[in-house]
Structure formats: structure tokens, C-alpha cells
Amino acid sequence: MSPLDWGIGHATRCVPLIRELQKQQARIIIGASGRSSDFLSYYFPEIELINVPGHEIKYPSSGRMVWKMASQLPGFLSNIREDHRLLEQIIKKYKIDAVISDNRFGMWSKEVYSVYVTHQLRIKAPEGWNFAEGILSALHRHFIRNYNECWIPDYPGNENLSGDLGHPPKLSPNFHYIGPLSRFSLNGEEIKRSDEEEPSGMLILLSGPEPQRSIFEGLVLKELANHMEMKVTILRGLPGNQDKISPMPHVTMYSHLPDNEMKSQIRAAKVIICRPGYSTLMDLAALGKGAILVPTPGQTEQEYLARYHAEGKSYISMRQSEFSLAKAIEAGNGLMLQSYSINPEKLLEERIQKIFDIF
Fold first, then answer.
1. Domain residue spans in the chain?
2. Beta-carbon count within 10 A of 223 CB
3. Which fold has domain 193-332?
4. What are phi and psi of 176, to 5 degrees?
5. Are 295 and 319 in contact (CB under 8 A)?
6. What is the model's pTM?
7. Distance CA 359, CA 354 (A)
8. Who contacts 237 (Cβ-Cβ below 8 Å, separation ≥6)?
9. Per-residue model confidence as pLDDT tens digits over 6-46
10. Which regions in the chain score pLDDT beneath 70?
11. Helices 14-23 and 344-358 meet at what angle, rounded to 10?
């Protein structure tokens, strides 16, 4: 099991995959680095973890995203080749039977059964570069063809989380929807407001790569300093740290929280502000919560997902350059609970069982 290391979203959605593999008594080895390694070693200290160096993408603090990404392409391609070379060594050393790669293009082998996990079959290009979407998506499919299967962490059909990112007009026979992958689970139970205490306070979930994670954190704190009486909890998205600070009397900041505490914070919050990273959206869907979505500037996937979900009644989209706590509170008070009729745990269990049947 090896997740991409752009932030920790790819690592968080590996949690239900690993739990299901454990239920089926698989011998698991995790290949990760950086914050992904910190996160997964915290969750699964009993599982052997191998350092698989990543190539963390650097996002600009300002300016055009496309040029920043283009400048990092040579390093990204080099990392793909290195991933593939390293995996062949790991297979021989540890006698691996199968590999599951979450968006790491090079983690496949002709020697073992290889599975690729992604929700982004269609790549969104930056504004003004729409002509490149077909090329980028074709390039992605080129890498996916190296794998025996592609798993899409979403619901099939119109009731879904990824929109046209994960729902192309035609789907290859070896592509399978496995349901959203969230570390939080209600086991398919119906979500009812009457089952909970009345929500109160604001929860701000910070996530994603630097420097934009820190830039948004600074913006939020500046807004909080100017006005706010509401109780606010900020989760900074920094696994490996257990810091708790109170920069203001009404504000509590945690670097990271265990699952049960984070789940309680999300369900108890009246207003939630977060990035529309896909893993975050899956976690919110699992708990039936809406949110104010503030995309990372220039990150086309998040910008699309924010627009897509803002068409419903559970989410509001707000640009970071126009972010206002007062507007967020006003908008957040009217958001509705969301629910889905399909049990994602069942989809995942069935798919993994079919992999075990191969062996």
C-alpha cells in the first residue's frame, strides 16, 4: 500500500482500505514518506512501514499555478521512474503478492497484481488552458493502463461526490467504483439531527500542501482577531504533532486529533470551513455534514469540486481572496445535512474479496 504524498489526503483515504485488508487477514506493508508516513504510522503502529521517498509538489504563494507545476515536471517524472525501480526491489525482498497505489504512477509491476486508486479520471486544466484537459486525461490513462485494476473511491451513478472527475462517459471493464473511502464510518446508518445535540461553534479544517496551508491559516487567524465571539476549533492538519494552543480566548488550535475526537468535532460543529480536498469531502459525506469550501488557489481539482458541490444545498464555495468569516457564518447557518443511500463499506469489501479470490 503506497499513497501519493501531496498533503495527507491520499494517506487518510488509505485507512479504510488498510482496515478492510486487516479484516481479511492480509499481511500489509506501507510505503510512504513525510506527513503521509507520520499519519499512517500513527494509525497503524503495528504495520511495517518502508520509507518510499516522494516528490511533494510545491504550490506557489502567488502567481500562475501552471508555470509552477510545469517547472516541477522533470522531477515528477524522475520520481515515477524511481518509484517503479524501488517497488521491484521491495517485491523481491518482501515477497509481495499485490500492490495498491493511491495515485502513485510508478507503483506497478508485471510481477504482481497491481491496483491503482484515483477519483480523478478526468484532469481539470487551469483557466484558459481547457484545450489541455484531453491531453492531460489521456496521459493519466496511459499510466493507469500499467495496472490490472483501477479503483474509484466514489459511488456509481448520478449520486456521487466526484462529478465528471470520476465519471467518464465510458468506463473500462477493469475500472470499479468502491464507494467513498473515509476513516469515519456510520456503517450506513441514516443520519438524523434529532440523534445529536444541537450543533454549535465553528470548526476550521486546514489541509493541503505548503505554502498555501500556512497562508490560509494566517488569513483565518487574522479574521478571528478582528471579530468573533463564536467558539472556534482549528485543526491544523499536521500529523506527528500533538500540540494544543489557544491564540485567542475563544479559539483552540490542534495540530492533529485522534479519529474519535475529530469525528466528534465535525458532527458537533454548526459551521465548518475547509478545503474541498476530495478526502475531506468523503469524510464530510460519511458524517452527513455540509461546509464552506475554500479551494486552494490555482488547484483546479479543488476549484471544480467546490463549484460542483455548491450546486446543492450542503455546501457553499468561497474564494480564498474573498474569504470573510462573517459571510461564512451567515452562509453556513443555512446548510443542510446530506445523506447517501449506498453503503460504501459493502462496495469496498466486495472488491477486496475479489482480489483475494485471484490468489
1. 2-182+342-358, 193-332
2. 16
3. Rossmann fold (3.40.50)
4. -135, 135
5. yes
6. 0.87
7. 9
8. 7, 8, 205, 206, 207, 208, 213, 256
9. 778 889 999 999 999 999 899 999 999 888 898 899 889 99
10. 55-76, 128, 185-198, 228, 240, 334, 337-342, 359
11. 60
